[in-house]
């Protein structure tokens, strides 16, 4: 059996705010350890994504797109809520979310290793339908420059 070329799913949930940076340090034993809240977040991902784990891990160059939609805050305005979705510019930081997410996905066997992610994007919003949308696909020559800004394709092809 071979690994799929593409996996896409949406899990309706309240996304975790725990990040990979929340490790503990034991100064007596001189070691790092995983705090309980980080283990709880890893268990959350394992439970929420279990049904989407491929029979074989994906390999080769991969494109990963993840969208986190967090629930509205009490302080969010009615006008924001009426839009249905707004960009989130507060904690947790997207780079720390992505690290925790990729570590969990690696442990579950979605891909051979997160070093396979050649093109990654994580977006975070507040919205009416909280959850996590995931799209993983193998990069092919045809999809290599998809969604790249024009300036990047000029650099790659050398033409306008």
Concise synopsis of the structure shown:
By secondary structure, the chain is α+β, with helices and mostly antiparallel strands.
Please tell me about this protein's structure.
By secondary structure, the chain is of the alpha+beta class. It has a single domain (6-157), classed as 60s Ribosomal Protein L30, Chain: A (2-Layer Sandwich). 27% of the residues lie in helices and 29% in strands. The protein is built from four helices and seven strands; from the N terminus they run E-E-E-H-E-H-E-H-E-E-H. It has a five-stranded mixed β-sheet.
What is the count of helical runs? 4
How would you characterize the largest beta sheet? 5 strands, mixed
Please indicate the count of domains.
1
Give the averaged pLDDT, no decimals. 85
**Helix-and-strand structural type:** alpha+beta
Estimate the helix proportion, in percent. 25-40%
- The CATH architecture term is 2-Layer Sandwich
Shape: globular
CATH structural class? Alpha Beta
CATH homology group: Holliday junction resolvase RusA
Rg, nearest Å = 18 Å
The termini sit apart by: 42 Å
- In CATH terms, what is the fold-level topology? 60s Ribosomal Protein L30, Chain: A
Q: Give the low-pLDDT segments.
A: none
| E-strand count | 7
Percentage of β-strand residues: 25-35%
Order of helices and strands, N to C? Answer: EEEHEHEHEEH
């Amino acid at each position: 059996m071979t690994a799929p070329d593409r996996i896409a799913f949406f899990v309706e949930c309240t996304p975790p705010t725990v990040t990979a940076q929340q490790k503990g340090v034991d100064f007596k034993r001189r070691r790092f350890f995983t705090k309980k809240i980080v283990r709880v977040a890893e268990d959350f991902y394992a439970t929420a994504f279990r049904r989407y784990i491929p029979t074989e891990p994906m390999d080769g160059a991969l494109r990963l797109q993840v969208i986190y939609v967090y629930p509205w805050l009490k302080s969010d305005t009615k006008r924001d809520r009426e839009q249905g979705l707004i960009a989130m510019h507060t904690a947790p930081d997207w780079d720390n979310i992505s690290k925790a997410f990729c570590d969990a996905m690696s442990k579950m066997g979605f891909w051979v290793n997160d070093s396979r992610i050649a093109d990654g994007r994580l977006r975070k919003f507040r919205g009416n339908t909280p959850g996590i949308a995931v799209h993983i696909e193998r990069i092919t020559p045809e999809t290599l420059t998809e969604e790249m800004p024009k300036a990047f394709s000029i650099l790659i092809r050398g033409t306008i």
